[in-house]
Amino acid sequence: MKALRNKINFKNISFFFFITAVILLPASIAQVDDSNHLRGKAFSDPFKIMNMPEEWINQTVTYEPWAENAGIAVTLDQHLYPALRPMIDTYAKDHGLNIAVNEGTCGISAGYLFRKTVDIAGFCCPPAKIDRLPGLQYHTVGIGALAILVHPDNPIDNISFNQAQRIYQGKIFRWSELTAEQGNENPDMLIKPVARLHCKIRPGHWRLLLDNEDLFGVKVNNVGSIEDVIMMVYDDPRAIGGTETLYMAHHRYTQKRQLKPLRINGYSPDEPRHLISGKYPFYFSYNITTWEKESIKNPHAQELVNYILQQAERIESKFGIIPSISLREAGWKFKDNELIGEPGKQYSKDIH
């Protein structure tokens, strides 16, 4: 009986020390790093095509009034439009073509494709399943880094991927909670996170930080435009904004002083090699489309897309687009012309 009582006491003492040890663990050790689990998928399955009625499949492309009398109708999202427009205008002049080009968004591109009113549509995101219409082919022009931005007076210039997630989850509240580098003391002020949770149905983009909007904290200011993100960060030293391109932050909506892009795990969004290697985690995937069905495809549109893909290395550097050829060389995965997987990952994981 005494031996049994001693055994029970030993178990109780062991359990007490175990619980005490867990409670007193340093935060850096006790914090469970579930970064990869919370990160959204980068791409959708290219083999899962939407089911559409036969009447829609046989429907031809009919231009809307803005493209009336054009030889090719093109709609591009607000990122691809300024990057590709000079190239398209040059092609039109050299080939004697009337090419109508509309500036829109990924949602507008999807709508035009569904109504079959354009030959080419441009996206800054990988296609969702509902974007994969029968007879539609996606061609990846390249990818571009998305930055997490802070006010230029903020002394912090590097955070970990896990810290970025915890800031936007509402688990890190103050800048002083972050580990200071080089002996600098971080400001003891509240963090004001700003985000633009656009294209929620599509993989990639901000979902490479946190998979869905339910994972973002209640104090995240979800705004509707790129300019809103940039201006709110510029006007408030406490703010952090993401994820946006450096072109938008430093060129299209530039201020007297540029916002500071944070390094993530020591890797910078303005260093192409960091993105090409897969070490920098946030990016846009820029895609354009063509119709492949013989009865509706436009040969001129296919030739224009081929030209854009061949000339992608010549896109002005300020747009930060890394062409597909560089990605192929670095081990990114493609199906025909479409980017479908990150380097160093199994195909099945890339498109889960």
Architecture overview:
- The chain folds into two domains: 55-144 and 282-350, 3-Layer(aba) Sandwich (D-Maltodextrin-Binding Protein, domain 2), CATH 3.40.190.10; 146-178 and 185-272, 3-Layer(aba) Sandwich (D-Maltodextrin-Binding Protein, domain 2).
- Helix content is 32%, strand content 19%.
- The chain has helices at residues 2-23, 27-30, 35-38, 54-57, 80-95, 106-115, 161-169, 226-235, 246-252, 272-276, 299-311, 324-329, 347-350, and strands at 72-77, 99-104, 120-123, 136-145, 147-150, 158-159, 192-195, 221-222, 239-244, 260-261, 263-264, 283-291, 321-323, 333-335, 338-341.
- It is elongated, with a radius of gyration of 24 Å.
- The N and C termini lie far apart (57 Å).
Q: Short summary of the structure?
A:
With 352 residues, the chain is α/β, with parallel strands linked by helices. The protein has helices spanning 2-23, 27-30, 35-38, 54-57, 80-95, 106-115, 161-169, 226-235, 246-252, 272-276, 299-311, 324-329, 347-350, and strands at residues 72-77, 99-104, 120-123, 136-145, 147-150, 158-159, 192-195, 221-222, 239-244, 260-261, 263-264, 283-291, 321-323, 333-335, 338-341. A six-stranded mixed β-sheet has the order 2-1-3-12-4-13, with helices on both faces. Strands 8-7-9-5-10 form a five-stranded mixed β-sheet. Strands 6-11 form a two-stranded parallel sheet.
